[in-house]
Design brief:
The complex is a heterodimer of chains A (230) and B (296).
Chain A (H helix, E strand, L loop, with lengths): L10 H5 L2 E3 L3 H25 L5 H5 L3 H26 L7 H8 L1 H5 L14 H25 L9 H32 L3 H7 L1 E3 H7 L1 H7 L13
Antiparallel strand pairs in A: 1-2
Chain B lengths: L1 H4 L23 E6 L8 H9 L26 E8 L5 E8 L8 H5 L6 E3 L5 E3 L9 H5 L6 E3 L4 E3 L5 H4 L6 H5 L5 E5 H17 L7 E3 L9 E5 L19 H7 L1 H24 L16
Classes of the chains: A mainly alpha (230), B alpha+beta (296).
């Protein structure tokens, strides 16, 4: 189908045509990470504050939560490792992202038409991905030290001291990223949540939020970049 | 404590004053360990195991008389043997009974996230309630004395109870009961502090230990186990007794400023996101303009 051959009367229905965005593997891995992170969040918050200790009861009690929290941490790490393999090329921060970053206030104010076109993932998604990626490295290192506190000799107690601070601080950063991620994908952006379930988005969605990617996946050579519409 | 609740304050049909009325009891207990009269017989180690129902575990020989390198989850009382060469070339064998210090300001309790897993009684005893312990090991990070120990089989942490079960019925701790030299004493904090100071003075003035003194560290607001040391200026000589023990700074940072900053950030974040949605609403997908020159 060529551009000139599309009659205007068909345009609206064509807008609703689905194009694939996430493979089955990507979606399964995403939900593996999401579920393990949710468990880590609930149990971690239980250990974080006495006011949230009741959360431990929800997942089977304090000792059970303490036993499984590190194992779910390993599951989450594995899921993130797979996500890295799947997405790290698309998450590379490039020149287009710098232009997009400058226009971020417009994005926050939902004036998306003022934004430069972006590829498969926008700069915010890339920040989220790399934020979680580096956080998990720190959480894993400090987490292992907390998992086997008794195995650390007394002369290495500074590792314990560093680990409790790093683990809590970095976990807070991931909570911030998690809240924004869930809000944006499940509530703020129409069509995003569904795309992680059934794997596809409408042409209109792709055109609106990821225009460069839209032209790429449509298999058409991208014409000259035109300035974003004001 | 138990005595306090049964103290008589009014008596029926009684003329005159109430005997003992207005009496000020001191409830703070204290164990005094005089390292200068310890002979290293380890009777306290055995008594501790016997009373607390702990089986004797394998010993570790490390070219000293010491039973094992450190206290263990099932070995709460350990005499640390340290050879010390004095300035005149003579050798001293420093022996210090190591156990929970029962800090007035306990780092284990500050670090513990589990409701009621660690309690501090009015008499100063810091006690672990294993039925509430989740085995996270944070107490091991909070303790400045390396005392709480994790049992891999029970997945819980154990330590000296100062024989709380004995003390609450008016008995002295098992280790005190077993000591043959009288280097261990048990009583109220002020009595033990007086006795310790008297002994330290004697050591300074009569026995020629100019630096003798009492170890009751202020960094943890004092302890309910205190030591008389020949050389109070170098407590490290006695098997790593810290010079200025305190709750680790990172535990304080984690439990105080970070906790409140974190709580504020999490609540603020949720409020901020709710505000954003109410102010700006949903991001809707647009229609692709029919005249889009790149329309496919």
């Amino acid at each position: 189908m060529t551009a000139g051959a599309v009659p205007h009367s068909n345009a609206a229905s064509q807008d609703e045509e689905l194009i694939p965005r996430y493979t089955l593997g990507e979606r399964i891995n995403h939900w593996l990470g999401a579920l393990s992170y949710t468990y880590l969040l609930l149990t971690g918050l239980a250990f974080w504050s006495p006011y949230l200790y009741w959360l431990a009861a929800v997942v089977g009690g304090g000792p059970t939560a303490r036993f499984w929290h590190p194992w779910f941490g390993l599951i989450f790490t594995a899921s993130l490792f797979l996500a890295f393999q799947e997405w790290h090329r698309d998450m590379k921060i490039d020149e287009a992202d710098r232009a997009w970053a400058k226009a971020m206030p417009d994005y926050i104010q939902n004036q998306d038409e003022k934004l430069p076109p972006v590829g498969r993932f926008n700069f915010g998604q890339k920040l989220f991905f790399w934020g979680i990626f580096y956080s998990v490295i720190l959480l894993l290192l400090s987490g292992v030290a907390l998992w086997y506190t008794e195995a650390l000799p007394w002369s290495f107690r500074f590792v314990r001291y560093a680990a409790i601070l790093i683990h809590a601080s970095v976990a807070l950063i991931t909570i911030g990223l998690f809240l924004i991620h869930v809000y944006m994908s499940a509530i703020l952006e129409e069509g995003s949540f569904g795309s992680m379930i059934h794997g596809s988005v409408t042409r209109a969605w792709a055109w609106t939020f990821h225009r460069t990617w839209y032209y790429d996946v449509a298999g058409k050579t991208r014409p000259e970049q035109s300035p974003p519409k004001q | 404590m138990s005595q306090a609740s049964t103290e008589i304050i009014r008596i029926s049909g009684h003329t005159g004053t109430v005997p003992g009325a207005g009496l000020n009891r001191e409830f703070q207990v204290c164990k005094l360990v005089d390292t200068t009269t310890c002979i290293g017989c380890k009777a306290c180690e055995v008594a501790c195991l016997e009373w607390n129902g702990l089986t004797f575990s394998e010993t570790t020989f490390n070219n000293s008389y010491q039973t094992m390198p450190d206290t263990a989850w099932n070995y709460w009382n350990l005499i640390k043997f340290n050879e010390h060469e004095r300035e005149d070339g003579s050798m001293m064998l420093l022996m210090r009974k190591d156990q929970c210090m029962h800090c007035e300001d306990p780092g284990c309790l500050a670090a513990c996230p589990a409701d009621a897993a660690i309690v501090q009684y009015a008499n100063g005893i810091v006690d672990f309630q294993q039925e509430h312990c989740i085995g996270c090991g944070y107490c091991m990070t909070g303790c400045p004395f390396n005392i709480p120990k994790f049992s891999p089989t029970a997945r819980k942490v154990f330590k000296c109870t100062l024989c709380n079960d004995r003390v609450s019925v008016g008995l002295e701790p098992a280790c005190i009961k077993a000591c043959p030299t009288g280097c261990l004493h048990f009583g109220t904090k002020s009595e033990m502090k007086d006795l310790a100071e008297t002994r330290a003075k004697q050591l300074r003035e009569v026995s020629g230990f100019a630096d003798a003194g009492v170890y009751d560290p202020l960094g943890v607001s004092g302890t309910h186990v205190i030591y008389v040391l020949h050389d109070a200026k170098n407590p490290e000589l006695y098997g790593g007794l810290p010079r200025n023990p305190h709750i680790p700074y990172s535990v304080w940072l984690w439990k105080k400023p970070l906790k409140w900053l974190g709580n504020l950030a999490m609540v603020g974040g949720l409020v901020g996101l709710a505000w954003h949605y109410m102010r700006y609403g949903q991001k809707k997908e647009e229609r692709i303009p029919p005249d889009d020159e790149r329309r496919i």
